[in-house]
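Chapter review: from sequence to fold.
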Amino acid sequence: MVIESATSTVAEKGNFHLVLSGGSTPGEVYSLLSQEPYRSSIDWKHVHLWWGDERCVAPEHPDSNYRKANELLIRYLDIPKNQIHRIPAELAPAEAAKLYQQEMQMCFSGSAFPRFDLILLGIGEDGHTASLFPGTKALLENKRWAVENHVEKMHAWRITLTYPAINAASKVVVLVSGTSKAKIIQRIFDHSERSKKYPIQSVNPPQGKMQWLCDESAASLITSYSS
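The token string follows.
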């Protein structure tokens, strides 16, 4: 999925903008990509790495999404440092979000919103994705590309891409695994439950494609589905 998208996009455009996600399931993908023959299947010199969200911690902090991606994948790659677009989440939240948006604007100059080639997302048991949590202010943002978002139940600030930035992507892939995600997947996909609104359900790129990759455990409670 990542290899196919990267290969075709680099051949067509000369570069590939990939947005990484936190979480255990994307981490398994990163571990695979760091190994042969997968690693050499992508021309990493033409890849730009971005993040869908970040906890407001230093890059070396154990909770950092950047640190996890770096340990599992980036340190094994031949990728220019200036193409690794880390969220500067060690700064004050508002400043970090502002600088991250400015960096995106430099790479996607002249665009109303960034046109990422592939965004990898996870999903939480409450239906959140990136750091778009239920009941938070970031859900209402329709102009900015990245915002600081306070998550009350975690008593913490996060930096996250906004819906407009995510939905401008060419392709979004949601990675879901494990029995702990079975109930939220059931609520999202079962016809009788789909009137309920969870943050992930507002991800729908109008000019792109969206794909769900669920393992058997995560999909185990789905009994009906209507597209």
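Two observations follow directly from the output. Residues 34 and 73 are 5 Å apart (CA to CA). The helical segments are 2-13, 24-33, 65-72, 93-107, 163-167, 182-189.
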